[in-house]
Design goal:
By secondary structure, the protein is an alpha/beta fold. Helix content is 45%, strand content 11%. It holds the Pfam family DUF4276.
Length: 225
């Protein structure tokens, strides 16, 4: 089957979140698929295989790679992932780094966490400085466990995801991720009415949401601001 967008994900907990977010962002006429992996090494091995396979069966497919930053240097991580893509295929790819981990997105929307666990007072903590900029927390997962002791990423991400707001999240990496999807959707819509010049594989030149570096996030064949 041909897909317009394929999401290559580090792990299933991210897929749990995207299963809730993507129907709100991607119109039904655009076909997409999420493929989760068993961690960073599995994702790195999977990228060239998937790019080559889809290039044969669905050459117009665009890819969005989602990877936790964790303790990595953001610029180097994007560069390394970009190099894997460039060595594998000329497919259009957008790379998005979650700063520092998925739980940063949850801490950026404590109202969603409060609804998921029926903790009404939790949303009031959003104005604390560390929750106003959750991407700066080095261990968002541990911070979330302090607030919700039973939290476990593998299953509880599915519990929080339905309540996440597309517009109110304090995580800048979440906001950048959402905008990236909108840009790709816009590109697909535009390409159906006009011919896009494929000159260099670069979709997006937005800044890293945390370190504000000027390095490219992605590889693709045309530029979207």
């Amino acid at each position: 089957m041909n897909y317009d967008i394929v999401f290559l994900l580090e792990e299933s907990s991210i897929e749990n979140v995207l299963n809730e977010l993507l129907p709100k962002l991607i119109p039904p006429e655009i076909r997409y698929k999420c493929i989760s992996n068993q961690g960073k090494q599995d994702l790195a091995k999977s990228i060239p295989i998937k790019l080559k396979a889809f290039n044969k069966s669905s050459p117009n497919t665009k890819f969005i790679i989602v990877h936790d930053q964790d303790s990595h240097d953001c610029q180097k991580l994007k560069k390394d992932l970009g190099q894997i893509c460039q060595n594998s295929s000329d497919a259009q790819v957008l790379i998005r780094i979650i700063c520092h981990e998925l739980e940063s997105w949850f801490l950026g929307d404590l109202a969603a966490v409060a609804k998921a666990y029926n903790l009404n007072s939790l949303g009031q903590k959003q104005n604390k400085s560390k929750y106003r900029e959750p991407d700066r927390l080095n261990s968002a997962k541990q911070e979330l466990k302090k607030l919700v002791k039973e939290y476990y990423a593998g299953t509880h991400s599915k519990q929080i995801a339905p309540h996440l707001s597309l517009t109110e999240n304090k995580s800048r990496s979440f906001q950048t991720f959402i905008q990236g999807i909108k840009n790709v959707v816009e590109m697909i819509g535009s390409s159906r009415f006009c011919v896009i010049s494929l000159t260099y594989n670069m979709i997006d030149q937005s800044l890293c949401p945390l370190c504000l570096c000027g390095s490219f996030h992605s590889l693709a064949s045309s530029t979207v601001s």
